[in-house]
């Protein structure tokens, strides 16, 4: 009897639980249907690329607040426009020595080339004298032979000399002319070869770092230095440009000078151009073969400086964001010089005073700048 009662109560309990579950699910479904669904509205981008390839930035956006805007002003600087490596090529030896033995070079090969250059120069001077003397000799011989021919011709006409003597004199005159022409031809041919050899030796000296005109003027307390300027930077150099050099053996001292000459030809192997100058060395601290870091263009000048953070490097070029209208920026290519310090860099071309650029935070826009540059490049290729 008790067991039947327990079974009956169990059924009732299960029924109550089932009813409760049904009511709970119904309430949940009803409440879910009555709750409004929030619409997913996309957040507008703070940056828009316009049809003219400029970039518009929302001034109310958090991105804009992360950026700094800089108005360009010229600043007086004396930082190098270009840094290159250089070498002490030659200096005069101390004491009284013959001119040809009066220089120390940075290599035996260079010394040998210089000796060849001197030899060819001596040959040219000797041949010039030989040609002049030979011309004088031939002229004298021809004058004498012509006088003899004229004398014999008159004597033959009056019958006091045989015709064969006149013929012999005329033959001697022709022989003298032929021999004179041959002698002059040989000397002039030797002169041409000597001049070619001299020019070749001078070209090799220039490529090795010796400007012979500067070498001839080199004082007893000076050294001849040559530097290598990369091909892409040759537009930054000019004669009489001020420079500062630090030699590896004397890093605590700065030697100053000016560009005195520039090589007329580019090194095919290195794709560099030689720049020559002399440096005063009163204490005899510099010796041939010493290497140095040379800063070219240290003359004081007014220049535009921008923060390093403002530069965007894309492929092999540098760009900045330049303001063209309120909140509109153009990706502008610039030509940069040397860094003023760790935080500032000089602008050589592409910007003018009073223009505004994005400074700190420009790197955040680099992906957009890359797309703009690629688009402009593609359109330029299609137009070409």
From TrEMBL:
Q: What's a Pfam family in this record?
A: Beta-barrel_RND_2
Boundaries of every CusB-like beta-barrel domain copy:
227-297
Q: Which residues cross the membrane?
A: 7-27
Q: Where is the signal peptide?
A: none
> Which InterPro entries does the record associate with it?
Beta-barrel_RND_2, CzcB_C, MFP_Cation_Efflux
In its keyword annotation, does this UniProt entry include Magnesium?
Answer: no
UniProt keyword annotations, A-Z: Membrane, Transmembrane, Transmembrane helix, Transport
| GO MF term set | transition metal ion binding
- Is Transmembrane helix there in the keyword field? yes
Domain CzcB-like C-terminal circularly permuted SH3-like, by residue range, is 305-366
| GO cellular component terms attached to this protein's record | outer membrane-bounded periplasmic space
Q: Name one GO biological process term.
A: plasma membrane copper ion transport
This protein's source sits in the domain of life called Bacteria
**Protein name in the entry:** RND transporter
The organism named in the record is: Methylophilus methylotrophus (Bacterium W3A1)
């Amino acid at each position: 009897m008790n067991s039947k009662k327990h079974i009956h109560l169990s059924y009732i309990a299960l029924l109550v639980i089932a009813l409760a579950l049904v009511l709970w699910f119904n309430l949940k479904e009803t409440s879910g249907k009555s709750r409004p669904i929030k619409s997913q509205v996309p957040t507008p981008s703070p940056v828009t690329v316009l049809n003219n390839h400029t970039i518009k930035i929302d001034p109310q956006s958090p991105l804009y607040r992360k950026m700094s805007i800089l108005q360009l002003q010229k600043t007086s600087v004396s930082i190098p426009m270009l840094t290159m490596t250089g070498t002490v090529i030659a200096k005069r030896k101390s004491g009284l020595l013959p001119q040809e033995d009066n220089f120390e070079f940075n290599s035996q090969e260079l010394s040998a080339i210089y000796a060849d250059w001197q030899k060819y120069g001596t040959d040219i001077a000797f041949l010039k004298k030989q040609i002049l003397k030979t011309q004088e000799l031939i002229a004298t011989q021809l004058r004498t032979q012509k006088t003899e021919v004229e004398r014999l011709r008159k004597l033959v006409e009056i019958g006091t000399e045989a015709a064969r003597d006149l013929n012999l004199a005329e033959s001697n005159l022709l022989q003298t002319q032929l021999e004179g022409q041959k002698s002059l031809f040989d000397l002039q041919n030797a002169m041409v070869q000597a001049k070619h050899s001299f020019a070749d030796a001078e070209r090799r000296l220039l490529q090795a770092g010796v400007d012979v005109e500067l070498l001839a003027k080199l004082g007893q307390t000076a050294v001849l230095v040559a530097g290598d300027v990369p091909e892409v930077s040759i537009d930054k150099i000019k004669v009489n440009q001020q420079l500062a050099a630090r030699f590896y053996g004397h890093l605590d001292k700065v030697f100053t000078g000016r560009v005195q000459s520039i090589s007329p030809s580019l090194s095919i192997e290195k794709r560099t151009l030689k720049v020559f100058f002399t440096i005063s060395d009163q204490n005899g601290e510099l010796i041939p073969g010493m290497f140095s870091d040379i800063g070219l263009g240290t003359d004081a000048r007014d220049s535009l400086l921008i923060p390093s953070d403002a530069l965007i490097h894309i492929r092999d070029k540098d760009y900045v964001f330049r303001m063209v209208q309120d909140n509109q920026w153009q990706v502008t290519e610039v030509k940069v010089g040397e860094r003023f310090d760790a935080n500032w860099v000089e602008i050589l071309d592409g910007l003018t005073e009073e223009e505004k650029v994005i400074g700190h935070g420009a790197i955040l826009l680099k992906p957009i700048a890359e797309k703009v540059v690629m688009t402009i490049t593609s359109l330029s290729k299609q137009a070409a």
